[in-house]
Design goal:
Lipoxygenase-1, three-stranded antiparallel sheet, LOXH1 protein, Inner_ear_hair_cell_LOXHD
Length: 178
């Protein structure tokens, strides 16, 4: 369910202006925006110079309108440059943060190699792990030196004595290597 049947639009921004919102109508594929598929669209516009961001989203209509967007690559035919805009997030009212449009800055691999990919991985990891830090959750950290647990309780107490046997068992253990 990572594809979408909704109408997708994009706005491209460069140093000389923007395209305004353009609906992506005709892909080189027979069915557009399918999971795992790369779609290619031609967007006519005046030359915008160096690109710095895009805004991409959908109208939220139709069955299965939620969409997981990995990235957008824009090939500039004038300069023969490729501009990459990383997303790696849902555009879905029922997933992630509920947004169906995203503003994506250009990835400048020469200045910040891998920086956006690392940020995306950090956000993805936090999205998967944040449940552990919600109210009412007891966290346990295992200390390899003392072979005991350090517990962070929901009421704010910390048991740092390193009790080797915890009544919570191994609810959650984090191994930290220094």
């Amino acid at each position: 369910n990572a594809g979408t049947e909704a109408d997708v639009s994009i706005s491209v921004y460069g140093e000389r202006g923007d395209t305004g919102s353009r609906q992506l109508l005709r892909s080189q594929k027979s069915k557009k925006f399918l999971k795992g598929q790369t779609d290619i669209f031609a967007v006519e516009a005046v030359h915008l110079g160096c690109l710095y961001k895009i805004v991409i989203g959908h109208n939220g209509l139709g069955s299965g309108n939620g969409w997981f967007l990995d990235k957008v690559v824009i090939k500039d035919p004038v300069t023969d440059l490729d501009y990459t805009f990383l997303c790696h997030r849902w555009l879905d009212q029922g997933q992630d943060d509920g947004k169906i449009a995203r503003e994506l800055p250009v990835t400048d691999a020469s200045t910040f190699p891998g920086r956006q990919e690392l940020e995306i991985k950090r956000e993805k990891t936090w999205a998967a792990e944040k449940w552990k830090f919600q109210k009412g959750i007891t966290l346990q950290f295992y200390n390899r030196l003392t072979h005991g647990f350090i517990c962070l309780y929901p009421d704010g107490r910390v048991d740092a004595l390193g009790d080797k046997k915890s009544k919570y068992g191994k609810v959650f253990s984090v191994w930290i290597y220094a």
